[in-house]
Amino acid sequence: QVQLVESGGGLVQPGGSLRLSCKVSGSGFVINAMGWYRQAPGKQREMVARITTYGTTYADSVKGRFTISRDVGENMAYLQMNNLKPEDTAVYYCAVTEGGLGTLHWGQGTQVTVSS
Fold it and tell me: Is the pLDDT of residue 1 over 90?
């Protein structure tokens, strides 16, 4: 079945950058969309960025700072995060929808901590 693995999280100073990666593995699937979500302590999981054949969507809080991209042939998604702020601290999750029903799959999450 479909499996997702995120990497690239870590500790970074305010104003710094990180690049998150998501690898989708399995067989017999077609990806409809890929996205990044995050969840900070005491808060609900929120959409950060999504990418489909038809375009990209970003949360207002990250517009101009984050960029989502994908490599269809390698089943990879990326999130380039620039000018990071302490409020960006959260566990970041990769997600994909696949198949005719758009079945949703989640990765395990990777911690991003922005602190001086």
Answer: no
